[in-house]
Diaminopimelate decarboxylase
Amino acid sequence: MTRPTYVYDLAALATHAAAVRAALPDRVELLYAVKANPDPGMLRTLAATVDGFEAASRGELRHLAAVLPDRRVAAFAGPGKTDADLVAALAADVHRVHVESAAELHRLAALARAAGRTVEVLLRVNLPVATPGAVLVMGGRPSPFGMDPQEAVRLAADPPAGVRIRGVHAHLASGLDAASAAAVAREVTDWAVRQVRAEEVNVGGGMAVDYDRPERRFDWPGYGRLLGEVSDAHPTVRLRIEPGRAVAVYCGSYVTEVIDVKRSQGRWFVIVAGGTHHLRTPAAKGHSQPYAVVPRGGDGPRTDGGPVTVVGQLCTPKDVLAYATDGPAIAVGDVLVFAMAGAYAWNISHRDFLLHEPPEFRAGDPLAVAHDWGR
Ligand SMILES: *Cc1c(COP(=O)(O)O)cnc(C)c1O
């Protein structure tokens, strides 16, 4: 039996990233948040299009150095940076360090002075802006991320030697549609210019992805137009965004095979090889992962097209990948292609739970892989 396989469609990723880039004004920089999916093939594919990569840990810095050795890392972010993390950022000569607190700024400044360097930083600020419709909210309320606005104003007015404060970083919410994301960008930029005379503003990622309606995609052209207006209002400011999920999610699939089909108290259960220890996204976010069925003509048990719960091989009722109220009949041996598994999927999964084998990874077209399954 073929192992469950992540299939990354790098051609689709290249096309999508190019469309995102083309939708943005030239003067707006596009970074990719590596934590969404650090797959080397994806990073190499994106390298042709994005202006840079945002690393959120020392591990991601190391990984970027290995995968893209000639590329300077654009941003180093994340709460709880240790001295070792900051030294690694200095050693890697990252373009901007995103500083999360006053204490972190002072530690970074001291390390920079000791190395005879001046580090260029953005202050991550937790601004009280409205984030309507957001799925995850990182700011605008008590938060471990970033610093209060008045703290940023104080630090910008009197920065320690060893750092140069270039501006502001804000990543306040995820799940924002184009209009809301642009409104947040507007508020952040207005504030940053007025309060800390920012030369650069990174307004973060968090562009909406709708797992229940995969065809509803973030409106990049609309967002690009609105960001253009923000940029026009602040022509001296370098604007930057750093999406992850909305760039990578559509270009990955998790392809696996049906092991068993059974009826339990009036409901069909479809049990596939693998499960949420490979693809934790639906369990983590509480959605049903969209999937397509590729029939393989087996003569084993099959559903009758009625409501199904698709589960994996873990001994926990939380190992649910998808629900469907109706759909095609599913038989033992059929292949399911779970879509939207290109971001926060394998890399957020509790891979050692039950010590099942890991999935395989391939580049290509997921439907072609499904059709060739087992051959
Ligand atoms: C995770 C993260 C991103 C990317 O968020 P997406 O929702 O994947 O677009 C960008 N910036 C920061 C600071 C993050 O923590």
Q: What stands out?
A: The chain has eleven helices and 18 strands.
